[in-house]
């Protein structure tokens, strides 16, 4: 209590300082006058009594200071005074302040903007109570890495483990959804979850109830569903009587028993799936079109597991227990579980493991490099400013100011700059988010896309991160100049010479202090330019391919059917596609119709090709119907396309693109060549045609991929197929016609989302353009800051040597000689910085090759080609720009009038 009372007294003093000071002066005066009255009563004359009373009392200033110290919070008072002094100093040097704050704003803004995306996609915890207790549980094999879990394994793990308060299982499903009987079903994304899903997460429906324990017992018995808040608003207009209604999923009626809160988003362990719009008990999984054996087969790994740790249980203990259970299951069921381990991870660890983590780390490293360049720039500015303040600092030290006290004051000035840079940086960092949202308004985004877009926001975590970055900047750019400024020659500084004496030796002259800062800036800017150049070139090469795809995507509608959602067998599915195509051909606005699958990689070994791995090469494979090339206006350069006679009983055939033919049969006629294909069974297919197609569905690949097309009629498996319809007239009218055609063929068939293929590809191209510009901007900002730093250093050095330059010119030195002498400094710094940047790039390249998985680093999915000639051009460009930054002050130095320079000194 005494401590709190003391704090309150000191706080009251800070709030009423002037009143306390007046009362203190009155009390001191009262003591002096009281003693004087006592002396007068003893017979001392009045004048002598007052003088004697003042002598006995002592120094009023000392007593006032000692009394105030008992009431003050000394460090806060000192900080406030330093802050006021720093603000006045900043106002006296607006140019210096503006450049420093702008540099920090760019550095902090780059980190803030990138952190918004990384935090939203990788680091944000689940929106559930005590999210830190939620962990992921997944299987792991040597061949496939992390994988899902089967239902029998889930049951064994749930019943045997003691580390969890609860363990839940779920899987994502796209099912035909209809809000009322007879309505056209549309494909919507949902989750099939175990009955304890909401209990373990600690989130219950805002309306109605969760799942009951007995609804998780008998397969196919309890057809109940819980809706998301957004689906309830859209489909039922927030009707509170929705609990009395039914919805239809895959043609089955489900009773609505609950509606989730608006703030709850479905659990997505890696943020790659859509947000769930409904939740169905796991026992209903076989009935609504998913794997019918999902609840019984131990080799059906379809479920994602999450658990809540018991209070006091460390994740390491849970990981050891789960690993032991998995080992026992491997011994108990060797046919399905041998070699399958299990592990436990936090959600953040799971999301940041793999490609997403590498991407997040890369963009944060780029942003961090920009910040380091900005800090080096401000440190150089502060160091240059130190010489101008040497006399002020020397006087302060001479009259008794301690060096720690002066360092505190200088750090406070740096803190003020950091605060301004942080405020401006947060605003700069939010620009990419605003830009993405503005561009999103031009795209045809779905409800789910908009929901994902809402994740990118300026929240408390982003602001705290930005403040932390700014505070780190204070230590990075403020500490060294503060120590340098207070380490000065007092007599020389007071006389007017420079506070920092010239260092001796080549190393200390060229590779120390501000010179070192500039070289670091140039080196990091080279690193930024190279890395951003790699990505920029790769993205733009992908953009070039997307622009020159080899087919006409205008006036083409596309909709994708999933056989699992359709609940058709193979014969039924083929009949559905046939009837749908016949119905669309009768529409006057539909000119042509075709079917094509998404691409999937398959192992191939072309005839006569001796290179490649033992199993062949991995090549994208697309199943298409016989109208595909004609409907999409994809030219066949050699041979022919597919015919309706390419049926299951006919010889297996294929069409390849030019890149495939050139890679495997350069200089030969590919028509008639054979390819060994391993897609579940080894077979040989004969090439009957070559097409000019360079990319398909906006594939992310550079250079253009090798593509192989196979007839859909010869596909023994059911795959998701996309229907392409080339149309005339209005997009909305043809969309309605397409939906009507689906309804006529099958009234209960879910109608997928219909897209305009040309607009979809345009959105993809715009996204690539935005990404390339953001990455390219990183490198440009780094170089700009490095140029500012080099310019400031050379300009300061020229201004410091004005008298020397004047004397040299008075003695006959030529302007050209002076210009070369000043430029030499900039050239040496630029060359050393470029060399350091090349070494940094080499080290990072070795780290990438060491730690990045081969599938990411050298795979066919993403390739970035950036040759030595391009790197050399970057080096020359940076050297030219740095020399230009040094030339401007050098030219000014060579134009100095000797008489003016000497008079100024």
Polypeptide structure, described:
This protein folds into five domains: 2-72, no CATH class; 76-129 and 352-501, no CATH class; 143-338, no CATH class; 529-549 and 757-905, no CATH class; 556-756, no CATH class. α13 packs parallel to α26. The two termini are 63 Å apart. The longest helix has 44 residues, at 757-800. It contains 31 helices and 22 strands. The strands form three sheets. Strands 3-4-9-6-8-7 form a six-stranded mixed β-barrel. Strands 14-15-20-17-19-18 form a six-stranded mixed barrel. With 905 residues, it is an alpha+beta fold. Mean pLDDT is 76; it is low at 497-508 and 852-865.
Walk me through the topology.
Layout: H1 2-15, H2 17-41, H3 46-57, H4 60-71, H5 74-92, H6 94-123, E1 134-141, E2 145-147, H7 151-160, E3 164-178, E4 186-193, H8 197-201, E5 207-208, E6 224-227, H9 229-236, E7 246-249, E8 252-259, E9 278-281, E10 304-309, H10 315-332, H11 334-337, E11 341-346, H12 347-352, H13 355-388, H14 390-398, H15 403-440, H16 447-453, H17 460-486, H18 490-495, H19 506-510, H20 514-547, E12 556-561, H21 563-566, H22 570-585, E13 590-597, E14 600-606, E15 617-624, H23 628-631, E16 636-639, E17 653-657, H24 658-664, E18 674-678, E19 682-691, E20 708-711, E21 721-727, H25 731-745, E22 755-756, H26 757-800, H27 802-810, H28 815-851, H29 854-857, H30 868-894, H31 898-904
User: What is the radius of gyration computed over CA atoms, rounded to a whole number of angstroms?
Assistant: 37 Å
What proportion of the residues is helical, as a percent range? 40-55%
Determine the mean pLDDT.
76
Tally of alpha and pi helices: 31
pLDDT below 50 for ≥5 consecutive residues: which ranges?
497-508, 852-865
> Taking strands numbered 1, 2, ... along the chain, how are they ordered across the largest sheet?
3-4-9-6-8-7
The beta-strand count equals 22
């Amino acid at each position: 209590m005494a401590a709190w009372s003391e704090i309150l007294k000191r706080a009251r003093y800070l709030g009423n300082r002037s009143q306390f000071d007046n009362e203190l002066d009155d009390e001191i005066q009262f003591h002096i006058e009281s003693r004087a009255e006592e002396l007068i009563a003893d017979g001392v004359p009045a004048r002598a009594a007052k003088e004697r009373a003042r002598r006995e009392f002592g120094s009023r200033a000392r007593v006032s200071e000692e009394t105030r110290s008992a009431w003050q919070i000394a460090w806060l008072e000192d900080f406030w005074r330093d802050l006021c002094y720093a603000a006045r100093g900043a106002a006296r040097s607006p140019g210096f302040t503006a450049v420093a704050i702008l540099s920090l704003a760019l550095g902090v803004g780059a980190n803030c903007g990138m952190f918004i995306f990384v935090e939203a996609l990788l680091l944000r915890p689940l929106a559930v109570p005590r999210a830190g207790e939620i962990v992921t549980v997944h299987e792991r094999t040597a061949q496939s890495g992390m994988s899902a879990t089967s239902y029998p394994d889930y049951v064994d793990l749930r019943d045997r483990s003691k580390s969890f308060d609860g363990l839940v299982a779920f899987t994502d499903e796209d099912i035909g959804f209809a809000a009322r009987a007879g309505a056209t079903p549309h494909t919507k994304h949902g989750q099939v979850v175990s009955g304890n899903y909401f209990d373990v997460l600690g989130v219950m429906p805002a309306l109605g109830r969760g799942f009951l324990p007995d609804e998780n017992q008998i397969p196919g018995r309890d057809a109940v569903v819980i809706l998301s808040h957004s689906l309830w608003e859209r489909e039922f207009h927030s009707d509170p009587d929705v609990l009395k209604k039914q919805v239809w999923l895959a043609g089955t009626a489900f009773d609505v028993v609950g509606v989730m809160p608006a703030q709850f988003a479905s659990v997505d362990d890696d943020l790659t799936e859509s947000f769930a719009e409904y939740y169905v008990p796991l026992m209903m999984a076989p009935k609504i079109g998913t794997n019918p054996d999902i609840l019984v087969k131990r080799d059906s790994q379809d479920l994602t597991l999450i658990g809540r740790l018991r209070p006091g249980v460390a994740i390491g203990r849970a990981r050891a227990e789960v690993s032991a259970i998995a080992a026992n299951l491997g011994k108990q069921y060797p046919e399905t579980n041998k070699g399958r381990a299990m592990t436990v991870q936090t959600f953040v660890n799971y999301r940041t493991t793999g490609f997403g983590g590498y991407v997040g780390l890369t963009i944060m490293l780029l942003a961090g490099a920009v910040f380091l360049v900005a800090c080096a720039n401000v440190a150089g500015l502060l160091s240059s400013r130190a010489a101008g303040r040497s006399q002020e600092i020397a006087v302060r030290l001479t009259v008794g100011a301690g060096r720690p006290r002066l360092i505190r004051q200088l750090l406070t000035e740096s803190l003020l700059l950091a605060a301004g840079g942080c405020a401006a940086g947060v605003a700069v960092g939010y620009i990419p988010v605003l830009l993405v949202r503005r561009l999103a308004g031009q795209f045809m985004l779905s409800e789910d896309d908009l929901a994902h877009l809402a994740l990118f926001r300026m929240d408390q975590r982003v602001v705290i991160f930005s403040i932390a970055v700014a505070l780190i900047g204070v230590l990075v750019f403020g500490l060294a100049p503060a120590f340098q400024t207070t380490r000065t020659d007092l007599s020389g500084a007071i006389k007017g010479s420079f506070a920092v004496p010239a260092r001796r030796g080549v190393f200390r002259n060229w590779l120390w202090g501000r010179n070192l800062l500039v070289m670091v800036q140039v080196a990091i800017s080279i690193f930024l330019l190279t890395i951003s150049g790699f990505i920029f070139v790769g993205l733009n090469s992908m953009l070039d391919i997307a622009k020159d795809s080899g087919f006409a995507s205008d006036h083409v509608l596309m909709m994708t059917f999933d056989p699992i959602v359709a609940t058709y067998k193979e014969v039924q599915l083929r009949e559905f596609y046939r009837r749908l195509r016949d119905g669309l051909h009768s529409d006057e606005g539909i000119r042509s119709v075709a079917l094509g699958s998404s691409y999937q990689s398959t192992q191939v070994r072309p005839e006569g090709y001796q290179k490649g791995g033992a199993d062949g090469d991995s090549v994208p494979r697309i199943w298409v119907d016989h109208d595909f090339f004609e409907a999409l206006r994809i030219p066949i350069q050699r041979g022919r396309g597919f015919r309706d006679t390419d049926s299951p009983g006919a010889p297996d055939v294929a069409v390849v693109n030019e890149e495939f033919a050139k890679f495997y049969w350069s200089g030969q006629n590919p028509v008639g060549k054979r390819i060994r294909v391993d897609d579940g069974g080894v077979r040989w297919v004969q090439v009957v045609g070559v097409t000019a197609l360079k990319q398909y569905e906006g594939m992310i690949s550079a250079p253009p991929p090798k593509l192989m097309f196979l007839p859909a009629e010869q596909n023994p498996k059911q795959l998701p197929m996309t229907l392409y319809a080339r149309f005339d007239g209005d997009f909305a009218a043809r969309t309605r016609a397409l939906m009507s055609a689906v309804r006529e063929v099958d009234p209960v068939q879910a109608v997928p989302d219909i897209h305009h293929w040309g607009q979809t590809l345009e959105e993809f191209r715009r996204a690539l353009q935005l990404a390339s510009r953001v990455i390219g901007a990183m490198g440009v900002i780094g170089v700009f800051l490095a140029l500012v730093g080099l310019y400031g250093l050379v300009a300061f050095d020229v201004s410091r040597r004005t008298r020397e330059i004047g004397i040299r010119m008075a003695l006959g030195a030529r302007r050209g000689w002076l210009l070369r002498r000043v430029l030499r400094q900039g050239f040496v710094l630029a060359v050393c910085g470029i060399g350091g940047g090349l070494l940094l790039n080499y080290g990072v390249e070795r780290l990438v090759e060491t730690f990045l998985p081969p599938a990411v680093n050298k795979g066919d999915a993403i390739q970035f080609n950036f040759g030595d000639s391009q790197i050399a051009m970057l080096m020359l460009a940076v050297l030219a720009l740095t020399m230009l930054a040094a030339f401007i002050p050098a030219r000014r130095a060579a134009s100095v009038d000797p008489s003016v320079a000497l008079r100024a000194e």
